[in-house]
């Protein structure tokens, strides 16, 4: 455990040593892109979305927006492909839309290198094996991104993510960063041919056309999350004390999110929700203590 924590600490220092100079050097680019987004696509300039981070803890991902707010006659947003302008496509192809994620890295929500943070709604579709991608911080780039990016099938992407989880090192991270720079310059693998974005992950392997193949994501023993009792979630009652205990075990690293979900029969999205509630309540309690302390000081005066 100590060795693993030290490796994560090393990786965090590595990230800060690169991201702080990058933010300073790229500040003019950041400002220009922000202004152009405001003028061409409107407000807000940032796309914000909750994503699962290290050990499944939710965080708010930041990107420059690339889509307009164009709607149909019923007031519904048009499909992404119809809202993606030439300017938005340029931001994606040049990866300039990802620049705000440097702030996520500075804050500690993400790392420079790691599996890309996917949607919160995908958590309950992971197999136990696929959940292992949450054992490292999500990255701005990753092993899957330099080996195909969005043109990969979901099955291929998960395999590459898990390989990185098992083999990551600072040397590998540095190599991936260099490979990423080359891929960005060549604009490779931006999206699946003929589509504005990657196909939705539905809990099954895709065959590259968007249809579902007969293969389902499985753990090493061939059982899916649902088959292994992974999705008991609402059928068991958990006391507030037990919820807090489970969350603390994950946050402190006593158990990985995969181990906790397997042991207690939880879906990762449920555990992620518990973590968010726990952290929110802890923040409120801390603020309450600060208020009481300030009030006490005023009374003594």
What report would you give on this structure?
With about 300 residues, the protein is mainly alpha-helical. The protein folds into 2 domains: about 1-120 and about 135-155 and about 170-185, no CATH class; about 235-300, Orthogonal Bundle (Arc Repressor Mutant, subunit A), CATH 1.10.10. Helix content is about 45%, strand content about 5%. It contains 10 helices and 4 strands. The protein has helices spanning about 1-25, 25-40, 80-85, 85-95, 100-105, 155-165, 170-185, 240-250, 255-265, 270-300, and strands at about 45-50, 60-65, 110-115, 140. The chain has a two-stranded antiparallel sheet. The chain has a two-stranded parallel ribbon with strand order 3-4. Strand 1 and strand 2 (about 60-65) form a beta hairpin. Helix 1 crosses helix 5 and helix 8 (about 240-250) packs across helix 10 (about 270-300). The longest helix is centred in the last third of the chain and has 33 residues, at about 270-300. The relative contact order is 0.11. Residues about 190-195 and about 205-235 have low confidence and may be disordered.
Strand order of the largest sheet: 1-2
What does the average pLDDT come to? Answer: 80
**DSSP E strands, number:** 4
Count of all domains: 2
The largest sheet, given as strand count, sense and whether it forms a barrel, is: 2 strands, antiparallel
Structural class: mainly alpha
Straight-line N-to-C gap:
48 Å
Strand proportion? 5-15%
Helical fraction: 40-55%
């Amino acid at each position: 455990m100590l060795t693993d924590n030290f490796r994560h600490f090393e990786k965090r220092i590595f990230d800060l040593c690169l991201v702080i100079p990058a933010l300073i050097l790229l500040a003019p680019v950041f400002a220009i892109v922000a202004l152009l987004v405001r003028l061409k696509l409107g407000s807000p300039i940032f796309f914000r979305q909750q994503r699962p981070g290290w050990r499944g803890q939710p965080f708010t991902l930041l990107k420059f927006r690339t889509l307009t707010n164009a709607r149909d006659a019923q007031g519904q947003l048009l499909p992404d492909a119809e809202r993606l302008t030439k300017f938005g496509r340029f931001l994606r192809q040049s990866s300039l839309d990802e620049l705000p994620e440097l702030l996520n890295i500075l804050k500690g929500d993400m790392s420079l290198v790691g599996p890309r943070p996917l949607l919160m709604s995908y958590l309950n579709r992971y197999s136990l094996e696929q959940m292992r991608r949450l054992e490292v911080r999500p990255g701005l780039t990753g092993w899957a991104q330099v080996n195909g990016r969005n043109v990969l099938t979901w099955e291929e992407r998960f395999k590459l993510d898990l390989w990185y989880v098992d083999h990551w090192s600072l040397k590998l991270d540095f190599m991936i960063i260099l490979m990423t720079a080359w891929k960005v310059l060549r604009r490779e693998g931006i999206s699946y041919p003929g589509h504005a974005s990657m196909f939705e992950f539905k809990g099954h392997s895709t065959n590259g056309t968007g249809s579902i193949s007969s293969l389902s994501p499985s753990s090493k023993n061939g059982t899916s999350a649902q088959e292994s009792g992974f999705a008991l979630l609402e059928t068991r009652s958990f006391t507030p004390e037990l919820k807090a205990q489970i969350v603390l075990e994950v946050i402190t690293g006593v158990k990985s999110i995969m181990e906790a979900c397997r042991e207690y029969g939880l879906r990762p999205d449920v555990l992620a929700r518990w973590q968010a509630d726990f952290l929110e309540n802890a923040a409120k309690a801390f603020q309450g203590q600060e208020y009481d302390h300030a009030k006490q000081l005023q009374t003594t005066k």
